[in-house]
Amino acid sequence: MKKTTGTSIIIFIPFMVAIMILQKKAPDLLIVLAVISSSLFLFSMIVRNSMRFKPYFTSRYNVLTSKVRHQMEFDLPKDILFEKMREVLTEAGFKVHHAEKDAGILFATSAISFFSWGENIYVDITESSGKTKVDFCSACFFGIVSWGRNEKNYERMMETFENSLII
Question: Is 0.85 topped by the overall pTM?
Fold first, then answer.
Protein backbone atom coordinates (compact mmCIF):
# COMPACT_ATOMS: atom_id res chain seq x y z
CA MET A 1 0.00 0.00 0.00
CA LYS A 2 1.48 3.33 -1.05
CA LYS A 3 0.40 6.78 0.05
CA THR A 4 2.11 9.97 -1.13
CA THR A 5 1.46 13.47 0.14
CA GLY A 6 2.85 16.89 -0.76
CA THR A 7 2.07 20.06 -2.63
CA SER A 8 3.84 22.08 -5.29
CA ILE A 9 5.03 25.35 -3.81
CA ILE A 10 8.40 26.73 -4.84
CA ILE A 11 11.02 26.23 -2.13
CA PHE A 12 13.21 29.11 -3.27
CA ILE A 13 10.75 31.84 -2.20
CA PRO A 14 12.90 32.96 0.78
CA PHE A 15 15.91 33.40 -1.49
CA MET A 16 13.96 35.35 -4.09
CA VAL A 17 12.45 37.54 -1.40
CA ALA A 18 15.91 38.20 0.04
CA ILE A 19 17.05 39.43 -3.37
CA MET A 20 13.95 41.60 -3.66
CA ILE A 21 14.58 43.02 -0.18
CA LEU A 22 18.13 43.90 -1.13
CA GLN A 23 16.76 45.67 -4.20
CA LYS A 24 14.05 47.34 -2.05
CA LYS A 25 11.26 46.03 -4.28
CA ALA A 26 9.60 43.58 -1.91
CA PRO A 27 6.14 44.26 -0.51
CA ASP A 28 5.70 43.76 3.23
CA LEU A 29 3.73 40.54 2.73
CA LEU A 30 6.65 38.89 0.93
CA ILE A 31 8.99 39.93 3.72
CA VAL A 32 6.69 38.31 6.29
CA LEU A 33 6.46 35.12 4.18
CA ALA A 34 10.25 35.00 3.87
CA VAL A 35 10.71 35.36 7.63
CA ILE A 36 8.11 32.67 8.37
CA SER A 37 9.47 30.15 5.85
CA SER A 38 13.07 30.80 6.94
CA SER A 39 12.06 30.29 10.57
CA LEU A 40 10.30 27.01 9.74
CA PHE A 41 13.36 25.84 7.80
CA LEU A 42 15.66 26.59 10.75
CA PHE A 43 13.26 24.90 13.18
CA SER A 44 13.12 21.79 10.97
CA MET A 45 16.91 21.76 10.64
CA ILE A 46 17.36 21.94 14.42
CA VAL A 47 14.84 19.20 15.34
CA ARG A 48 15.53 16.93 12.35
CA ASN A 49 17.49 14.28 14.28
CA SER A 50 15.06 14.03 17.19
CA MET A 51 12.58 11.16 17.36
CA ARG A 52 10.39 13.38 19.54
CA PHE A 53 9.30 15.36 16.46
CA LYS A 54 8.05 12.38 14.44
CA PRO A 55 4.42 13.62 14.61
CA TYR A 56 5.52 16.99 13.18
CA PHE A 57 7.33 15.48 10.19
CA THR A 58 4.78 12.76 9.41
CA SER A 59 1.60 14.78 9.91
CA ARG A 60 -0.65 15.02 6.88
CA TYR A 61 -1.24 18.66 7.82
CA ASN A 62 2.44 19.56 7.48
CA VAL A 63 2.51 20.71 3.85
CA LEU A 64 6.19 21.62 4.08
CA THR A 65 7.28 17.98 4.07
CA SER A 66 6.73 15.58 1.22
CA LYS A 67 6.05 12.06 2.49
CA VAL A 68 5.83 8.50 1.13
CA ARG A 69 4.33 5.65 3.15
CA HIS A 70 4.41 1.90 2.54
CA GLN A 71 3.08 -1.08 4.50
CA MET A 72 4.42 -4.62 4.19
CA GLU A 73 3.64 -7.92 5.90
CA PHE A 74 6.17 -10.64 6.70
CA ASP A 75 6.05 -14.14 8.15
CA LEU A 76 9.12 -13.45 10.33
CA PRO A 77 8.90 -12.86 14.10
CA LYS A 78 9.05 -9.24 15.23
CA ASP A 79 12.36 -9.61 17.10
CA ILE A 80 14.19 -11.09 14.12
CA LEU A 81 12.65 -8.60 11.67
CA PHE A 82 13.56 -5.65 13.92
CA GLU A 83 17.24 -6.64 14.01
CA LYS A 84 17.22 -7.30 10.26
CA MET A 85 15.62 -3.90 9.48
CA ARG A 86 18.13 -2.15 11.73
CA GLU A 87 20.98 -3.88 9.89
CA VAL A 88 19.40 -3.14 6.50
CA LEU A 89 18.98 0.58 7.21
CA THR A 90 22.68 0.85 8.07
CA GLU A 91 23.76 -1.19 5.03
CA ALA A 92 21.55 0.93 2.77
CA GLY A 93 23.48 4.04 3.81
CA PHE A 94 21.06 5.54 6.32
CA LYS A 95 22.16 6.75 9.75
CA VAL A 96 20.12 5.10 12.51
CA HIS A 97 19.45 7.61 15.32
CA HIS A 98 16.90 5.75 17.42
CA ALA A 99 15.99 2.09 17.87
CA GLU A 100 13.54 0.67 20.42
CA LYS A 101 13.29 -3.08 20.09
CA ASP A 102 10.37 -3.54 22.51
CA ALA A 103 8.28 -0.88 20.78
CA GLY A 104 9.46 -1.89 17.29
CA ILE A 105 10.49 1.65 16.36
CA LEU A 106 13.40 2.62 14.11
CA PHE A 107 14.36 6.16 13.10
CA ALA A 108 17.04 6.93 10.53
CA THR A 109 18.06 9.82 8.29
CA SER A 110 19.49 10.07 4.81
CA ALA A 111 22.30 12.38 3.82
CA ILE A 112 21.88 15.78 2.22
CA SER A 113 22.17 15.63 -1.57
CA PHE A 114 21.94 17.92 -4.56
CA PHE A 115 18.19 17.25 -4.79
CA SER A 116 17.28 17.14 -1.11
CA TRP A 117 18.04 18.53 2.32
CA GLY A 118 17.74 14.95 3.53
CA GLU A 119 14.91 12.72 4.62
CA ASN A 120 13.73 11.28 7.91
CA ILE A 121 12.92 7.57 7.73
CA TYR A 122 10.53 6.01 10.25
CA VAL A 123 10.00 2.24 10.46
CA ASP A 124 7.36 0.85 12.84
CA ILE A 125 7.18 -2.92 13.33
CA THR A 126 4.13 -4.54 14.91
CA GLU A 127 3.11 -8.18 15.32
CA SER A 128 -0.38 -9.65 15.33
CA SER A 129 -1.96 -12.96 14.33
CA GLY A 130 1.37 -14.56 13.45
CA LYS A 131 2.18 -11.83 10.91
CA THR A 132 4.59 -8.94 11.33
CA LYS A 133 3.58 -5.63 9.78
CA VAL A 134 6.17 -3.02 8.82
CA ASP A 135 5.09 0.59 8.33
CA PHE A 136 7.66 2.64 6.41
CA CYS A 137 7.56 6.43 6.11
CA SER A 138 10.14 8.63 4.39
CA ALA A 139 9.61 12.37 4.87
CA CYS A 140 11.68 15.24 3.55
CA PHE A 141 12.65 17.27 6.58
CA PHE A 142 11.97 20.46 4.60
CA GLY A 143 10.82 20.06 1.05
CA ILE A 144 7.47 20.27 -0.59
CA VAL A 145 8.67 18.17 -3.51
CA SER A 146 10.89 15.15 -2.85
CA TRP A 147 12.13 14.77 -6.45
CA GLY A 148 11.65 11.01 -6.04
CA ARG A 149 14.03 10.74 -3.07
CA ASN A 150 11.38 9.37 -0.67
CA GLU A 151 10.45 6.59 -3.08
CA LYS A 152 14.13 5.85 -3.76
CA ASN A 153 14.73 5.51 -0.01
CA TYR A 154 12.03 2.83 0.16
CA GLU A 155 13.36 1.04 -2.92
CA ARG A 156 16.93 1.15 -1.58
CA MET A 157 15.83 -0.26 1.78
CA MET A 158 13.80 -3.07 0.20
CA GLU A 159 16.54 -3.95 -2.30
CA THR A 160 19.07 -4.16 0.54
CA PHE A 161 16.62 -6.27 2.57
CA GLU A 162 16.03 -8.70 -0.30
CA ASN A 163 19.77 -8.97 -1.04
CA SER A 164 20.47 -9.71 2.63
CA LEU A 165 18.19 -12.76 2.47
CA ILE A 166 20.07 -14.33 -0.47
CA ILE A 167 22.54 -16.99 0.60
Answer: no
pLDDT tens for 54-102 read: 888 888 888 878 899 999 998 888 998 999 999 999 999 999 999 999 9
Q: What per-residue confidence (pLDDT) applies to 45?
A: 79
The structural domains of the chain, ordered by start, are 2-10+54-164 (3.30.530.50)
Pairing between strand 2-5 and 119-128? unpaired
Closest CA to 136 of 157, 115, 118, 166: 157
Type of residue at 34: A
